[in-house]
Amino acid sequence: MFNQHRILRVFKLISLLKAFPNKSIKRLAQSLEISERSCYRYLDLLAELGFVVEKDAHNKFFIPAEDFSEPLTKEEATLIHETITVAAKNHPLAASILSKLPYLDEQHAMGQHILAGHLAKLVTQIKEAISTEKQIILHKYQSASSESISDRRVEPIGFTANYQYLCAYEPASAQNKYFKLERMFAIEILVENHKFKEAHLLLKPDVFGFNETGSKFPIKLKLSMRAMLFLKDDYPATAPFLKEQADGSWLLEGEVNSMEPVERILRGMPGEVEMVV
Q1: Given 3.40.390, 3.30.420, 2.30.30, 3.40.50, which CATH number is that of 134-199?
Q2: Tens digits of per-residue pLDDT, 256-272?
């Protein structure tokens, strides 16, 4: 059991370091549910495995995107694949890990299929809660805006067209919000019925998942290739709006409902993202 947890933590750490924005040691330790001292040991382990872990100007950690071309041999990937499918196939991180292995095409497709199955289960549970008008808890939801992991009690309303986001009313904040399904650890359907139906409003989110506020903000961002890859990973809806430029940079142009994620991206990747006037 110890080795199983250790393997899963290693892969979760890789996933966290790959995802935008860069993470502080405190944030990494909280996500892995370990001490900061233990987290440093895991970072050392990644270095021993051949990963290049870097720090930005704000002492936040990341793994450069180009380091993911071939971090494992096929034999190593096969061993990890077999270990996970035997010892931890029902773990919520299993699908994510399998989908990242540089394994044979059919194994990669299987990982994607498992991940899709996990998301489909979440959708089924949420649909049940919507039809029965029950409140739910999003367990260990990873918030990109607050960079926190917490349980969120909400009243589910509906999905975006591509099922990437759930629109739900959150009593604690008295707001309709969008929650990304891939950031949900698990769903719990409660016995409590919807209590705030008059406040429910199904809005259209922008490319960063922020709902309509009555205002629109035009943006034009110039991104390095690394920043573009991180953006596509964390915010897939930005993909159609990303255009490669002659100098090798990328341009994101469009309208958003809030400047909060844009400002966070600018802070998180200094020198790699800039606002074009």
Answers
A1: 2.30.30
A2: 888 888 888 888 788 88
Domain ranges for the chain = 2-103, 134-199, 217-275
Instruction: Check if the beta carbon of residue 238 is closer than 8 Å to that of residue 232.
Output: yes
**Class for domain 217-275, per CATH?**
alpha beta
What is the C-alpha separation between 254 and 247, in angstroms, rounded? Answer: 21
Distance in angstroms (rounded) separating the CA atoms of residues 274 and 277: 10
Domain 2-103: top CATH class: mainly alpha
What tokens appear for 205 in the block? 């989110």
Q: How far, in whole angstroms, is CA 19 from its chain's centroid?
A: 7
Would you list the DSSP string of the chain? -HHHHHHHHHHHHHHHHHSSS-B-HHHHHHHHTS-HHHHHHHHHHHHHTT---EE-TTS-EE--GGGGSSSS-HHHHHHHHHHHHHHSTTSTTHHHHHHHS---HHHHHHHHHHHHHHHHHHHHHHHHHHHHTEEEEEEEEEETTTTEEEEEEEEEEEE-TTSSEEEEEETTTTEEEEEEGGG--EEEEEEEEPS-GGG-------TTSPPP-S--EEEEEEE-HHHHHHHHHH-GGGGGGEEE-TTS-EEEEEEES-SHHHHHHHHHSTTTEEE--
Evaluate the CA torsion angle 95, 100, 101, 103 in order and state its sign: positive
Model confidence over 37-54: pLDDT tens digits? 889 988 988 887 778 888
Average pLDDT over residues 128-148: 85
Q: Are 276 and 220 in contact (CB under 8 A)?
A: yes
